[in-house]
Every structure is written in C-alpha cells, then in structure tokens.
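pasting input
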Amino acid sequence: MDLRNFFEPKSVAVLGVSKTPEKIGSVIFKNLVDSGFKGEVFAVNPNEDFVLGYKSYHSVNDIKEKIDLAVIAVPSKAVLSVIKECAQKRIKNILMVTAGFKESGNVKLDQELVELLSKYGMKFVGPNCLGIIDNYHAVDTLFIPLSRLQRPRKGNISFVTQSGAFGSSVLDLISAEGYGLSKFVSYGNSLDVDESDILDYLDKDKTTDLIVMYIEGVKNGKKFLETLKRMRKPVLAIKGGKFSESNNSTLSHTGSLAGAYEVYQGVFHQANVVSAESIQDIFDFLRIFEKNIKIRGNRVQIITNGGGHGVISSDAIIHNGLKLAELSESTKKKLKGSLPSIATVSNPLDLVGDADDLRYKLAIETCLHDKNNDVLLVNLLYQTPRLSKSIVDVIGELNHKNLKPIVVVSTGSYLTGELKESLEKKSIPCFQFPENAVKSIKAVYDYYRNRK
Amino acid sequence: MDLRNFFEPKSVAVLGVSKTPEKIGSVIFKNLVDSGFKGEVFAVNPNEDFVLGYKSYHSVNDIKEKIDLAVIAVPSKAVLSVIKECAQKRIKNILMVTAGFKESGNVKLDQELVELLSKYGMKFVGPNCLGIIDNYHAVDTLFIPLSRLQRPRKGNISFVTQSGAFGSSVLDLISAEGYGLSKFVSYGNSLDVDESDILDYLDKDKTTDLIVMYIEGVKNGKKFLETLKRMRKPVLAIKGGKFSESNNSTLSHTGSLAGAYEVYQGVFHQANVVSAESIQDIFDFLRIFEKNIKIRGNRVQIITNGGGHGVISSDAIIHNGLKLAELSESTKKKLKGSLPSIATVSNPLDLVGDADDLRYKLAIETCLHDKNNDVLLVNLLYQTPRLSKSIVDVIGELNHKNLKPIVVVSTGSYLTGELKESLEKKSIPCFQFPENAVKSIKAVYDYYRNRK
C-alpha cells in the first residue's frame, strides 16, 4: 500500500485545533508548524476564525488548496461527519488520533467508520493512535509537545507501535540514548492501514535500515506472516500480551485480542524476526543493529583489563550458546612475547589493571588478525589508572579497518559515559554491562545466520 | 573475627608510597589524606625522606606512634621483608594490594606469606585486592584516584567483592545511580580474612543494612554456608564463573577455582541469599532493598496511564510467578463512580493518557485501601500532557502513610529522569522499565517470604 502521503504530504489539514493550546489538536498543529515542515498546514475548527494566531477554517471544504493528509483530533462523536467532509474535499489519507472506539466498547462506531472509509476509498491510520513522525520530511503529528517528549535526531531506525503511550516513552528514551530515527508510526486500532502495510512501506523506504515494532495483536495473521517473511531489513519485535491472563488488558487497550505467545514466537522464528524479551533488549540490540554491523560467526574473543568482567563475559557467552574463541598458537606466541607476564593470554585475554592504550592496541590488533574468532568483546574498565582518552582513537582506527566486529563493554559513570559516547560516535557499540553486550551479539549473529 | 581495625583504624602506615603520584602506594596515601580521615597517616619508603610533600619513614619501625593498620603496596618481591618489619612493630592488621601471587602462578610466595602471618598472628586482607572504604570513618585505601572513580555518598549498602576491577566499576556506577555506601571491601586472594569473615563483621555493623557480594569461588564452603545462614541482613550475590568452561578465567583471576554453579545456587537457596543473574539485577534489586521496603505478598495491582505499559507489566508479573491482583467489588464501584468512562477499571487499572495528578491520587489511594493486593506497581508515563511535577508530592504523601509498598515505573529521558530522582528521594523505588521493576518485586518478595 502506498503510504507516501502519511509521511511526506505536501499539505496537511488538522481538524480539531482549538483556542486552548493544551488540547491535542492544538498540540498537533503546533508541532507541525514548529517541526520545520516544508508543506502547507491548515487549522480547522467549525466555531473559530482564528486559533493560536493562525486562520482557522470552519470546514476542510473552505480550504482552496489540495489536501494530501487530514489529521483528525475531533471528539469521537464528531468523527463521522468530519470524515464525510473530508470525502467531499476528496482527501484520500486520514490520520485519526481520536480515541473512544472499540477499545472503550464502542464497537458500533468502528463499524460505521469502516463503512465510510470503504465507501470513499480512503487510506486511514488509527483511530486511538499517537500520530506519525517522519524525520526526513519534517512531519510531526504527535499530540505530545516537544517540551514533554524529546524527538530523536535523524537516523536509520523506524519505530512502529500499536500502543501510543508505550511509543511515546520509548521514543523519548531513544532520543536520550542518542539513537537516530527515520519514522515513527503509532497506528492504534488499525481499522484500515495495519502493521503489515506499514512494515511493507518501511521495507522499501530509503532512510530506514531497520524496524522496531511493538505489537499486541494482529487481525490478519496470514498477511502479517507473509509480510514479515518478505522483509529484507531486520525487524526487532517486542510482543505485549504474552499470556492469556494478561490478554484482558490488551483487549481494552487497542481493541485487539492478543494471540497466543507461542504462535507469535513461531511467526517470528519463521520470518527471522528478532524477538526481544524486554524493552531493555530492544535498546541493547539496537546498539549493534543500527550500525549495520554484521556478526557472521559465534566465536567470541574477550579482551579485558578486569578479571571479574572477563569471568562474567565468559559466563554470558556460554549462557547464550555462543562459543569462547580459542587463540591460535601464533597469536598466543605473539602476545606472550609482547605482554607483561602478569597478563593472561587465553580467553578471556586479561591485560590486567595496569593496561594502557598501547597494550589494548596490541591485543585488539593481534586478535583482529586471528582466524580463530569472529567477534571481539572488549571490556574497558576506565577506572583503572593508565588508560587515557586516546583509547577511543586507538579502537576507532582498528575498527575502521573493518576486519571484524568490535563490541565494547565499559561499566561506570561519568568518565566512562563520555568514553562510551565517543566510541559510539565512531560506530563502535558500547554497553554498560557484559551480559547485555553478549545477549545482543547473539541476537545479531542469529539474525544474519538465519537470513536467506 | 574482629575486623574493626581495617575499617576504623586510628593510625595507618602506607608502605610503598613513592615520589611518583601515579604509583599505587602514592594514590592510596593521597586518598587517605584527602578522604578526611581523622586518624594519623604515615608514608613509608626505604629510600626517601620526603614523598608527595610529606615526611617519609624508611621503615615502619622508625614510626614512634602505634600503628593500627599497615597498607602494603610494595612490589611482590619485597612483601616478605616488610611483613617482618610490621611484625617487629607489632602491627596486627595488614591490607595488601600487591599482586603477583598464586593468581600469577607464584604459589610459593603465597605459602611463605601464610606461614609468616600465622607465625605473627596477623589479620590479613588480600593480596591482589583493591582496598577498603569505610564511608562512616572516612577510610579510603583504594588505589584508584577520585578523578577516575567517584565515591558513593554515605548510605546503608556494603559491597564485598572478590574482583577489584569489577568492584571499582560497579562502585563507580553505584555513585552515579545515587546509592549510598557504608563499606566497600575488595578482598582479592583471601589468604587469611575471607568472604565469610567479612560477611560476619558486616552483619553486626550498625551502618550496614544490606550486603552486595561478587563472588567467584570460596575455599571453605562449609564456613561460607554457615555464615550465610546466620546472616540477619539481606545478601545480594552475583556469582562469577558459572560454567566449567569459564572457570579457567577465575583461576587466573583471583587464584580460586570457581565451584559448580549448581552448588552455589543450592547454598544461596538454603541461606536465602538473593541471587542476581546479572549486574543489572543487582542495581535493580537494590532500588527496593536499600529502602528497607518489605514486600509480604505476591498480589500486584498495576496502575497505568499507558495501555502498553499495563500489558507489559502484566506479562512480567505472570512471567515472574507473581499474581495479578483482583480489585475488590467495593474498589471497582468506587473507581467506576469517580473515573471517566474511558478508563479501564481492572488490572491493569488504566487511567488512560489524559490522566492528571488527581486521577492518580484517587486510583492509588483507593487501591492502597483494597485488601485484595499486596503491592502497587504504578506506571507513570510523564510524556502525557496532564501530569504535573506535583505528582511527586501526591505519591510521596500516599507512600508516607506506609499502607503498602508502592513501586513506580517511568520510562523516558530528561523530564522523566528528574521525576524519578524526586520520587527516589522520597524513598519510592523508581524503575525505567516494567520488567526490571517486576523482577525486583519478585526478588524482595521471595526474600521476605523465605526469611525465618
């Protein structure tokens, strides 16, 4: 389905803009105006001539210009009549944030709405959704002000969510964690456009490299499976409503009955969807996926300056079904000849607490050339006295050679935080804890292993 | 074993202070001086008259004053002779940070050291350790400068770690996360004083309410089990070296062979130790434990303003073997009479996205008085438009009545971060994600359930 006009409309009408700036229609209008949107935006309110300092149209039919997208934020009792007005104006794309439909028990309203949409041949996102962001076309129709929810920088992740509030809180955190966003779609009750349509569109979208999805239930399981199987980009999914006991809440939430978790697990497995067990998983897995780092083998070599982190990393590797790489004889010989005797030349390769940048350089470089491993897990405890800020450049240069994926773990607070930020800027994934790093390596490895 | 002189000595001699400020002996001396230690500190260096602007003694025997604790940071080849000097000076408590013993294959040196300690009746912590902090006696013998590793504020957590570097990085994060510390002990190879002695001491320590422990292996399993079983305070443990394949690394690390994980799990279970699967678990569990919040039942009532978070919370509750509480009929009646019809009066209790402080107040207060639940899990998505900063006072006041434990989840970035900090200051545990909150509720519930 061509959803272009939802993401890159040339003109948008917002229905339900009010004199009160806090009302959702007003916030949407304001966000569109403030987001730097290049097209035209029109405010519609049947009772006002001016709202928020802008001209207000009493109906979309009072607007002369062609409208690519109508964003509807009127109360639920008014939705049918404004849809009819939009039809008169020949508006073909509707985004409706209004709630109060099936999710609140009002099934009849859903049916009437569906009939109208079908009659007029409209594409429709919502209702009961939060809106859409396209960072590359400065489209922002969220009904949450910027002061409450920071928007992420431009990037390659697109985020599709059935739940609006979940989407908003995770989006807020995506910004803070420095991830870049292409598109955000909260699709709510999916009366017309559904998750499959959106996935399909994003798979073809040039600014999207990977997709994060929060899903509770789907109406058309076959379409969903077929769409997922066709996807050429990684899809990271988190499923809400895993158990029958928690299904009541999904029903009253987005009006969809959550299917059995086992069925979803089967679908995800068949379609090579990366299944996240928790929100934390999503953020962890993204660290590697968003950098387009492909992990093609399961032999992990640990390098560390702290024994404990080496041990915990080993545990995590075995726990996740990955393999502790074995250093080749020539690597061992080289390292034993160059490292101080207190270092342990094995896996973990323990450079011990007084390791400096050069010792790390030697160890990483040598292991990058060792054919017995597929990925390096570099623990870098920056509390130790002899590491300097230049370690960022050291690892950055070695990583730049693209010999093998390097994943860094650095546990700590402020200084460590700066270090991680600098490494991330050089496209090196950097984790707080070894367990999360290893689980993410496993997820990325599994994705590329199972990819056709 | 009375370890008082390790934590609250009146006089300390540091052996191995050098003219170079970066050397470990110098850093220890500097930290002791800078930490506000009320006792006397003496620098010892056989070749210098002055170090770092202080008088240097050529031997501890040149010091006239009585010495409660000697901190030894000399090279390993010199340790035996300085121990003999300490014996002459009748120093009974030795903390040795020097490495290069069994963990590097030098077993003979260990044996000679043990013989000396036994001969002189010395208490000995180390070798191959990072040092000790006592926040209540301004003792700081870590060989990491303050600029590299932030020290936590005073608090009620004591942290015992076999691995020094692990300890340092976690300590750094403990500070940043705002947790308060009583004591930190890195005990390294535990030639004399071992984990059991330290646990025993901390259990009697007035400023310690709970203990976090990183452990790889113990020498005296029976003593360890007996000690743990005697503990009256919660012990949160993370075990390094869970699998036989990862045991090589623990052997070369602290010179101890990690025992089978199953054995440790058995010990932890018998002694009601809170077993953490990951470093993240430790930080999560602490949020509730450090506030001395006792969770006595497993029926969790979810309150939320975001459906997705409600669903994910439900999933986590079932996944962790807790129970979704059922609202009593009278609570349902009261809530249905007061909440807008769009709200879902069930579990989750969904106040929906336009909930304001008052709606939360009503919901929390009503649920606190409902006998059908034991703990409230309050999801608070602060991206929604109608919540104000006063929500902190609203929840703070309700929590102050001590009716039931309240655990908050608030996913998001800056504004949310401020909210969480304010709630934490009011002794309300605040989590980023529902899954971590629920897992922590389960850990605390299990601890108090199994406590004799």
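fyi Chain A has a mean pLDDT of 94.
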